[in-house]
Amino acid sequence: MFRFLFSKNLFFAFIAVVFAVMIAGLYFQFHRVIDKTNLEINKIELNRAKALSEKITTHIKTYKTEDFSQIFKNANLRKKLSNFLSLYITKEFKYIYIIYKDEKNEYRYLLDGSSGKDRGEFGQRFFPLLGKTWKQSFQSKHFVYGIQEKADGLWVTFLQPIEFEGLTKLVLVLDISTKEYDNLKRFLMPLYSFLRFFISVLSIIILLIIIQMYMFYKERKRSTIDTLTRLYNRNYLKEISGSINLSKIAIIMLDIDHFKSVNDNYGHDVGDIVLSSIAKKIVNETRLEDRVIRYGGEEFLILLRWRRNRKEVMRIAERIRKNISKENLRVDNDLSLQITISIGVNTDPDECESLEKAIKRADKMLYLAKNSGRNRVEYSSSYSDAC
Amino acid sequence: MKILLLTILAISSLLSSDIGQLKAQILSTIAHALIDKDSLNVCLDDKDLESSKKYAKSLKFVSCNKADIVFTSKVKDINMKCKTGLVFATSYYLYRHSPMVVGAFFWQKGRPNIIFRKKQLEKLGIKLPREFSKYVE
User: Fold this and answer.
1) Among the four residues A174, A289, A359, B45, which has the most C-beta atoms within 10 Å?
2) Tell me, what's the pLDDT at A309?
3) pLDDT > 70 fraction of chain A, expressed in percent and rounded
4) Is the predicted pLDDT of residue B20 greater than 50, yes or no?
5) CB distance A127–B137 less than 8 Å?
6) Could A120 and B109 be called an inter-chain contact, meaning their C-beta atoms sit closer than 8 Å?
7) With respect to CATH, is domain A2-182 assigned 3.30.930.10?
8) What is the pLDDT of residue A231?
9) Using CA atoms, how far apart are residues A23 and A28, in angstroms rounded to an integer?
10) pLDDT greater than 70 at residue B12
């Protein structure tokens, strides 16, 4: 059941991860599409702006005699040209105007096609937001543009220098509104929002699966651990029994001698202390890859992983016995007990058909050790001890 | 507050999505640059700037006769009604045609514009922090 659930959880986790990766891919791909579309619209807008600016510039250049001074001197001409600029104002090209630099290098309006509050008067200071782009426009002979992230309702500002005798005297400005950008947003944003919502929901589902898996592993671990000794219990043995390769282990079965009398004479609390102390000692004598299991009341089982030779197994079993019996076990300041253990060892579990039978063989050896006077180790023999 | 550059303010604040908030910050900066007082009484006589009232925490909005400074889109009769001579226009047209206004703050082509009139500043004995000099005409 555990294994089934475990594999089922892993399967769902795998599906969730694959799904998450796919959605993340979709999300980034979608972002790329937005960026690319944005760039394409930008290009189209710039081409339109370029075409329009050429048309306007050609017209303005007809007044460039005497360094455009006609325009500066003649208010009627400025009005006429501002009206000319206003003809090209659309929802897309929101503001069209011409800027010059005065002797203090400050930007000022020369012509403005705008109307109402947005109209800049002749000579009025103009405060640009894209300072560097503006500087560039007066130094360059080709158009420059800047993305308006700060101006209200503007997307791109297109600047076309107007030259006189090789020097940029004026700059034609086309402020492109966010209309096209808003259209793009209006078209793509619902999809984008849905995708974000979808990703959020998916993230929550994945998180829930992770939490569920964590709880499952925690519960699973709890059910396989003995609460008193913190050793594995028989649930664990049952769980791993199917995956154990008998040819790669040795089995040691231990039992505390006269444990009943400890409980009877000193009470169960002392008995518990003895059990947990012995468990600790056994764990200290084994390696990480070995498994120490509390098999029954005062019975312990050691699965020595990776088969060693018979002598080595015998040596380990003997070492455990000696270490436990060599000194009294101190229960508290007033009480210390002489504890011994009996051990039965199955050095060749692969001679048995199953783990159950292999354990029974070790148990039989333990029984023999008990009957032979306790505090000793008995080993199975291939010739005499059948599984 | 005075040491803040208006430029930095305008640019950084423009990142804020709420124009009302930005307008409030600019109003507050202008008022504090002109008057050296912690608590300022301001009269706001421009519908376009109404939205900024809720954001300008350092300013107290009062009627014209109690104000230290008036931001207005119509200067007419202001001298008779208001105790202060400190008037700031909220349109360029008003700034151009009312020599008594000390400066102008207005929105044009999606951009904030700020101008201070040198002559009027001198007349009122106001010395602006150096950072504002680029806005003085």
Assistant:
1) A174
2) 80
3) 94
4) yes
5) no
6) yes
7) no
8) 96
9) 9
10) no
Looking at chain A, the domain(s) classified CATH 3.30.70.270 span 234-379
* pLDDT confidence tier of residue B8, bands split at 50, 70 and 90: very low
Domain containing residue B43: CATH number? 3.40.50
Give the minimum alpha-carbon distance from B13 to chain A in angstroms, rounded to a whole number. Answer: 9
Minimum-distance CB partner of A127 among B91, B93, B111 = B111
Model confidence pLDDT, tens digit, residues A276-325: 999 999 999 999 999 999 999 999 999 998 656 888 899 999 999 999 99
- Residue B83 pLDDT > 80, yes or no? no
CB contacts < 8 Å between A and B, how many?
47
| Residue B71 belongs to a domain | yes
State whether A120 and B111 contact (CB < 8 Å): no
At A38, is the pLDDT very low, low, confident or very high (cuts 50, 70, 90)? Answer: confident
CA distance A144 to chain B (A): 19
Q: How many domains does chain B have?
A: 1
How many Å apart are CA A22 and CA A37, to the nearest integer? 22
- Closest Cα to residue A188, out of A381, A22, A30? A30
Residue A7 is predicted with a pLDDT of: 55
| Higher pLDDT pick, A86 / A179 | A86
Q: Is the pLDDT of residue A103 over 80?
A: yes
Maximum alpha-carbon separation in chain A: 128
Which residues in A129-142 are b (16+ Cβ under 10 Å) and which e?
A: bbeebbebbbeeee
Residue A3 reports pLDDT greater than 60: no
3-class SS of residue A377: strand
Is A150's CB within 8 Å of B11's CB?
A: yes
Q: Which two tokens stand for residue A310?
A: 């018979």
What is the C-alpha to C-alpha distance for residues A179 and B104, in angstroms, rounded to an integer? 30
Give the span between the Cα atoms of A135 and A173, in whole angstroms: 13
Whether A117 sits inside 8 A of B111 (CB atoms) is no
pLDDT at A204 over 70: yes
pLDDT at B5 over 60: no
Residue B97, in any domain of the structure: yes
In one-letter notation, the amino acid at residue A115 is S
Range A234-379 has CATH code 3.30.70.270: yes
Output the six-digit token pair for B40.
């300022």
Delimit the CATH 3.30.450.20 region(s) of chain A. Answer: 2-182
* Closest CA of chain B from A166, distance in Å: 29
Burial B104-123 (b: 16+ CB within 10 A, else e): bbbbbbbbbbbbbbeebbee
Instruction: Give the count of beta carbons closer than 10 Å to the beta carbon of residue A225.
Output: 16
In a domain, B135, yes or no: no
Predicted local confidence at residue A187, as pLDDT = 78
Identify whether B1 is part of a domain. no
Decide if the complex's ipTM is over 0.90.
no
Residue B105 sits in which domain range? 6-126
Q: Which of A128, A150, A175 sits opposite B14 (nearest CB)?
A: A150
